[in-house]
Amino acid sequence: MMKKVRTAIFPVAGLGTRFLPATKASPKEMLIVGDMPLIQHAVVEAMEAGIERFIFITSQGKTAIEDHFDSNQLLENVLQERSKIEDLAKVRQTQLEPGQAIFIRQQHPLGLGHAVWCARHLIQDEPFALLLADDLILSQTPCTKQLVQAYENNGPGNYTAVMEVAAEKVSRYGILDIADQKNGVISARSVVEKPDPETSPSRTAIVGRYILDPRVFNHINTQKVGIGQEIQLTDAFNPMIAQNIPFSGVLFEGERFDCGTKEGWLEANIAYAYNDPELQPSLLKAITKYHS
After folding, report:
1. What's this model's pTM, rounded to 2 decimal places?
2. Fewer CB atoms inside 10 A, N or C side of the chain?
3. 188 CB neighbour count, 10 Å cutoff
4. What 3 state SS string does the chain have?
5. Using CA atoms, how far apart are residues 27 and 96, in angstroms rounded to an integer?
6. Gap between the Cα atoms of 134 and 104, Å rounded
7. CA 77 to CA 29: how far, in whole Å?
8. ω into 142 cis (within 30 of 0)
């Protein structure tokens, strides 16, 4: 019997150096897109996919994330007294229930593989979701829900969201060596981390959404660093494929914004404003003003 995907991991320990000085004292995951911080967009997406438990891999200076998902009784009381009912509802919607949120410190910036490994004792033997808040995905069906559906339809294994990228950009991503493709699900014979464009096996790139088999913890080698002197999560996948544990890419419906860059973050805000009937007229007016 297949186990339900109930838990999600959110690696939020990064320093956010591309956004300095804004991220000197405030986590990059708290950067706003629309009316929510990036990390809340990711948590909402996970909730809509049926996730019940949320594990945040944090570091020093990230307490604002924990505070964001906690209750703020002073703020709630003020909103209640001033009859700001809609604002009060928005504040309460950010709160996670007692026991839903778990925060783990990653003491050293050793990469995504190490961040995932830090949660190994909490996951045990269940499949789990992994969401990178830097990747914001605007879609009709939440991207994580699309991955859960692929897992439920195709069985155990590792799943990731994938998209086609330009040839000159493959060196920024984990790239799939494609064995087969059926109904939007790609079977990989291997995964190559940040390949040279001239030798890349494809242009099918991994995006920051995963459903992972718990056996991945047996293959994350914490004693060996990979590309960028970090413990790479992708290094765990090829040994699993060799043991007939499938690795599949899901061609998701939606548009992905790389909010780890200033350009991607700006574009995400424009997209959200454009899709908001109240903000769209002001957005178009502002663009016309400065473009002219």
Report:
1. 0.92
2. N
3. 26
4. CCCCCCEEEEECCCCCHHHCCCCCCCCHHHCEECCEEHHHHHHHHHHHCCCCEEEEEECCCCHHHHHHCCCCHHHHHHHHHCCCHHHHHHHHHCCCCCCCEEEEECCCCCCHHHHHHCCHHHHCCCCEEEECCCEEEECCCCHHHHHHHHHHHHCCCEEEEEEECCHHHHHHCEEEEEEEEECCEEEEEEEEECCCCCCCCCCEEEEEEEEECHHHHHCCCCCCCCHHHCCCHHHHHHHHHHCCCCEEEEECCCEEEECCCHHHHHHHHHHHHHCCCCCHHHHHHHHHHHHC
5. 19
6. 19
7. 27
8. no
Whole-number pLDDT of residue 224: 63
* Cβ neighbourhood burial of 286 (10 Å; 0-12, 13-18, 19+): exposed
Amino acid at 81: E
253 Cβ contact list (under 8 Å, min separation 6): 139, 140, 141, 146
187-230 pLDDT per residue, tens: 999 999 899 999 999 999 999 999 999 999 999 876 566 555 67
Q: How far apart are CA 221 and CA 233, in angstroms?
A: 9
Q: How far is CA 285 from CA 132, 240, 270, 280, 288, in A?
A: 33, 52, 13, 9, 5
Phi-psi region of 253 (alpha: psi -120 to 50; beta: other; left: phi over 0): beta
Longest dimension (CA), the chain: 64
Please tell me the total number of residues recorded for the chain in this structure: 292
